[in-house]
Amino acid sequence: MAYKITDACVNCGACEGECPVSAISEAESARVIEASTCIDCGSCAGVCPTEAIEQA
């Protein structure tokens, strides 16, 4: 099950550098996770300051 980024995202970018498979990118005013690339490691969720990342 992949992770997803909710509307609570403030586009700080902290999560993007933590992703070991580069599944996170910027889209409009927030970050998004490519579900087909995500390996469900949770590294991104652990660094999100607004807790905007959750399991889909």
Produce the secondary structure layout.
Layout: E1 3-5, E2 24-27, E3 30-33, H1 43-47, E4 53-55
Antiparallel strand pairs: 1-4, 2-3
Q: Report the β-strand fraction as a percent range.
A: 25-35%
Order of helices and strands: EEEHE
Cα distance spanning the termini: 6 Å
Major beta sheet, specifics?
2 strands, antiparallel
Structure characterization notes:
The protein has 1 helix and 4 strands; from the N terminus they run βββαβ. A hairpin with a 2-residue loop joins β2 and β3.
Short description:
The chain has one helix at residues 43-47, and strands at residues 3-5, 24-27, 30-33, 53-55. It is mainly beta and 56 residues long. It is globular and about 25 Å long.
Features:
25% strand; two-stranded antiparallel ribbon; 1 helix; 56 residues; single chain; two-stranded antiparallel sheet; mainly beta; globular
